[in-house]
Amino acid sequence: MREAGMDEKKSPACEEFEPRLMLFAAGELDASQVVDLNDHLQHCTGCSLALTQQQEVLALLTARHAEPDAALLASCRAGLEDSLDQQEERSWLRRTIGALLPASWISPQPAWSAALLVLIGFSVGMLGPRLLRNAGGKGGTDSSVASNHATGVVPGGVTADPAFASSPTAGLSSLDMRTASVAGINVFPAEDNQPPQVQLQLNARQPYTVRGTVNDDDVKQMLMYILHNNQRFDPDVRLDAVDLLRMRNNDPDVRSALCQAVHTDHNAAVRLKALEALNGAEPQDIIRQTLLDALVDDQNPGVRVEAINALRDMAAKGQVDADDHLLAVLRERMTKDPSTYIRLQSAEVIRDLGPRQKF
Amino acid sequence: MGMSVALDIEARQAAAAKVAEEQALVRKAQAGDRLAFEALVRRFDREVLRLALNLVHRPEDARDIYQESFLRVYKNLHRFRFECSFYTWLYRIVTNVALDHLRRRTSRREDQAPVPEDAEGGTRDFFDRQPEQRAGANPERNLLGQELGEQIASALNRLSPRERMVFEMKHYQGLKLRAIGDMLGTSEETVKNSLFRATRKLRASLESMR
Hints:
The complex is a heterodimer.
Chain A (H helix, E strand, L loop, with lengths): L5 H4 L2 H14 L5 H13 L1 H19 L6 H31 L2 H4 L3 H28 L7 E3 L26 H6 L1 E8 L8 E7 L3 E6 L4 H12 L6 H11 L6 H13 L3 H11 L6 H13 L3 H16 L7 H13 L3 H13 L7
Chain B lengths: L1 H29 L3 H23 L2 H18 L9 H22 L18 H4 L9 H19 L3 H11 L5 H8 L3 H19 L4
Helix pairs in contact in B: 1-2, 2-3, 2-4, 3-4, 4-8, 6-9, 7-9, 8-9
């Protein structure tokens, strides 16, 4: 169809009315302007045609106008809900982190914030250990733990600086105990059948030295602590601890620690050494049960051999009662243990225990 | 006469109640009430989606605009100070998102042509896929309807994003020029000029179709 002819016949009046045609079609003309426009349209065919064209174009576009279908709307809503869920999770995390790290303050003032962080770090470094030690050391009295930063090593004695006088068990704070590592255990033989001197060097926040004999409770506690927390200390240190504690294997606490080492230590050498350390201790149910457990459960044949040897020693000395449980275990080992030696020794123990049993 | 005045008063009261209810919902949503926010979304989202769909013509893009708009609303709701209606504020966000989308699309050549392919390997956009009701079941008229759709899409593509937005808001959302100006952050006069340019371009493009 031909263009409305506005270009050819455009008069100044038509040019003035052209925008009004658009506004009229859009319903944006006020009443007085509508009257003026109608007057013009009555005698201007070009503008009338232009208006008609405009209305037809609008009708055409309106007919092709799309309405979102329900499926699209539902999918948009579902997507938005998911995004909002994620948003809420993120904002919760941000709030939590924001509460811990004042990033909003730090970012705009880097110089001041760096200075503040250095100051905070310095303060924490200076005051934190003191506060912790004061808290942990309240009530601490005698101790053989000495800080090298205080007055040096005091054999079997007391820490000179009360601020550092907490227990090793007593002498170390609980934090130190949890974090200390053992740098080494030195043993100095003593004369006249006296127990050897032991020097335990600890690396905590400050180096510590625990010194004394195994008869000193602090030394004993530290050695037992090593066995109880075997996963934190090297096997060499644990072996030394077992070796030293052997001298006190009649102490119920020590006995218990050695039995625990047999049950839980991951290193077969330590378990073996702990079994050896139990040898010669007063016969106790706990020892007998530990030996039986090692005999049945330990995967290491050397440990099982040591267990059956110890049982045989005890049986030979009449230190174990031939109860049903013991006999059942021995019979089972006698038939099932992969080690010939253990099978033979199990039979020997049964024989030693008394009258021949029916198998 | 008396009857019409009474109806007018009732309509005003209903409108005022609706505004009050909407403000209460906004306040609750600002306080973190997720259900209130969702109620607000459901109140306006069909219109938002319609606007988006008719601007970008592809449901996937329309969904993106919908999603981004309401997420922006959610994140910035605390900044809404009731200085305008929530509807206006919402549309400011929606139009910004949609304009960004249109501008990005204009600047990417690969996005200029409709992407989804039909069974015959041709490209058809959402409008092309809509049933041509006027064409009925007549294949010839169907073809004509398809051609018409393509020409309309082509004509609309010749508009600038802002012209497209103004035209859409005026003729399909039925908004007043002043309201459109508020939403787009511009004057009524500027909107009027945009609409004028859009109308002229469309008339010129679709001249042969009539």
